[in-house]
C-alpha cells in the first residue's frame, strides 16, 4: 500500500467494468469469500486468519488483542474496533481493526517495515463477519474516538489503485 496525501478531486476516474460473474458458494474461486451462506464457523470465511501486513513503514502507536473472536453475526457494539493496531506513517495514522484474538505481534513503540506481518484478520468488535477494516487520518492521532469519528480521513492507494467499499486486495 502506498499511503500518500492527495486531494479527492485529483483521484483518477473509475473505468467501466464488466459485470461480475455469479458463482455458486460450492464453486472454488478467488472471488468466493465464504463456503455457504452465513456459515457459523469462522474457518469457512476465506479471509479469516489471513496475515495482515504493515501497509507502510512507521511506528506502532497502540494495539489491542484481548477480545475473543465472535461467531458470525454476533456483534460487539461496546468495542467498535475490536482488536486493532494503529500505526504512524508519513504524518498519517493508519487504523487496522477487527483483528484475530491474540494475533497482533507488535506493541506500542515498535517500528515496523512495509509488508511486515503484524497480525491476522479476525472477527472482533462491531462486525458481522471476518474482514479487515483499514483507514487513514491526518496527523499523529492517539485518541481512539478522534481516530474513529473525528479525524480527517485521507485517501489511500493500493498498488497505485484507489479502492472503493468491498474491493479486495491480494498480495500473492
TrEMBL record:
This is M23 family metallopeptidase. It comes from Lujinxingia vulgaris. It comes from the Bacteria. Residues 1-24 are annotated as: Disordered. Residues 1-13 have a biased composition (Basic and acidic residues). One of its GO terms (molecular function) is metalloendopeptidase activity. Residues 45-136 form the M23ase beta-sheet core domain. InterPro entries: Cell_wall_metabolism_enzyme, Dup_hybrid_motif, M23ase_b-sheet_dom. CDD domains: M23_peptidase. It holds the Pfam family Peptidase_M23. Residues 14-23 have a biased composition (Basic residues). SUPFAM superfamilies: Duplicated hybrid motif (SSF51261).
